Structure formats: structure tokens, C-alpha cells
């Protein structure tokens, strides 16, 4: 028994013994030693492989990051090329635009010279063969001066009428049958015909004016003491206190108040005095000076001291 190896296995069913001779014992011992060596060697190799795998994963991550950086850089280059291409296209477009602008400026200069000569004729000023900057400035000031007064003082017709049915002056009133002074002009027009302001101003009154017999009436205040009256209207399109501009729609013609038929009664007053509107109807930029000789009772001479009128004399000094 000394040279035998006895292995006892105990289970729930009992114990069993196995015996090995000396050779088997050595073989088993060698097997156990080899198994232990194999276990430790395998563990060592596993640790090495694990470290190598970690290194490979890190290298893979670095490569992946580098790849993404390369892709991003490539996309950045593509975007920059697109921007550069767009910039070149924009520059080409701007160059073409500048060339067209240069051509247009050349044409505009020629047109401007012709326009200034035309403005000179329009204003009735003495013609000069050459228009220098000083002459152009004088023409511009004169045109602006006239436009200022044409917007400030009533002028032009207030309505596209069929005809003028009654003028300014003494007459027999068609309703009262008494001889009175007709203080305006009557424009025969269909009911609902648009009525326009004849100068810039402010609405003094807009509504039904029973005591005057004007029916629906609009009174506009203008510069330099002028007023305009628009009577017998069918509708009033403005309210008291509103600012209006020349040519603005202010009402519709009608037959309200003491009236025998659809028409517009139009008056121009200066300092509460009625003035014949007829010279004002045809007054414009080409016959600008005519009004100051045709219309009496207004001290036009004092207007020469006012700012837009005295610019010409200031520049001449």
C-alpha cells in the first residue's frame, strides 16, 4: 500500500476508493504541475493580449479621430471653394454692374445736360450755351422755388368737370332769385365726381354747413393767408385738423345745400376776401410770373423777401 495512491470519492450513495500504482502517481503529479504551468502561462498571455487589444483600440480611436478630422478638413476646403466661387461670381456681377453703371452715368450726364436745357426753357430763363455747376444750381433753386409756391398757393382745377357753369362776379342767385356776388366758380359735374385739393394745407372744416347754404362743405387753409372752399359736396373724405397735400382726394361732388343741380362750387379766399379763381386755374410752372400781375389785391411784392424767393439774389451776390 505504500507504493499505491488511494483516492477516495464520497457521494450520497457511499464512498468508493481508487488506487493508483507508483507510475500513475507520478503521471498525475506531472499532469497537475503541467496544468498549473499552463494556467499561469495562459493568464500571462491573456494579460499581454488584453494590453495589446487595448493598445489596438486606442490606435483605432486615434485613426478614427484622424479620419474624421480629414473628412472635416476636406469638407471645410469644399465649403471654402464654394464660397470663393460665389465671391468670384459676385465680383464678376459687380464688375458687370459697374460697367453698366458707367455707361448709364455717361448717358445720364448727357440726359442731365439736355434736361437742364429743357428746364431752362421751361422756366423761361435766358438761354446759355453751357451749363456750369453754378448755372445748374440757379436753375434748381428757381425750379424748387416755383414748386414750393405751386404747392403752397391754390392752382389748377379741383375737379374733372363737364364744363364751367358759372363764373366769379355778380349774378342772380338761382335759388334765392336775388342779385348777389358769386364768390367762386361752379363746375358742372355728375354726382360722385372726385374732388381734389389744389394746394397743400390743413382742413379747417369738413362736414354739413347748413347756415351758409353750401351743404356739405370743405374749407382748407393754405400758406400765405389763402383758403379754398369746396361746396355742395355729396361726400366729405377728410376731417377737421387733417393735413392734406396738393392733388389729394378730399371729397365727391354733389347737390347738397342750396343747389339746383350736381356741381362743385369752388372758392379761393385771401385774408377772408374772395378772389376770382380763374387765373389760378391755369397757373403753373411755365407761366409762374403771370399770376402776380393778373391777381390784384394781394401784396405779392412782399413775397420776394421770403426765403425760397430770395435764394436767387443771395447766390448772385
Structure description:
By secondary structure, the chain is of the alpha+beta class. It has 2 domains: 1-105; 158-282, Glucose Permease (Domain IIA) (Distorted Sandwich). Helices cover 44% and strands 25% of the residues.
Jot down its keywords.
2 domains, ten-stranded antiparallel beta sheet, Glucose Permease (Domain IIA), two-stranded antiparallel ribbon, elongated, alpha+beta, 317 residues, disordered C terminus, 25% strand
Largest sheet: 10 strands, antiparallel
Q: Mean pLDDT, as a whole number? A: 79
The domain count comes to 2
The helix-and-strand class reads: alpha+beta
Shape: elongated
CATH class of the largest domain: Mainly Beta
Summarize the structure.
With about 325 residues, the chain is an alpha+beta fold.
How is the topology of this model organized?
Layout: E1 5-11, E2 14-20, H1 22-123, H2 133-152, E3 163-166, E4 169-172, E5 179-182, E6 185-188, E7 194-196, E8 201-209, E9 215-221, E10 226-236, E11 243-244, E12 249-253, E13 263-270, E14 273-275, H3 278-281, H4 290-294, H5 307-316
Antiparallel strand pairs: 1-2, 3-6, 4-5, 6-13, 7-12, 8-9, 8-11, 9-10, 10-12, 10-13, 13-14
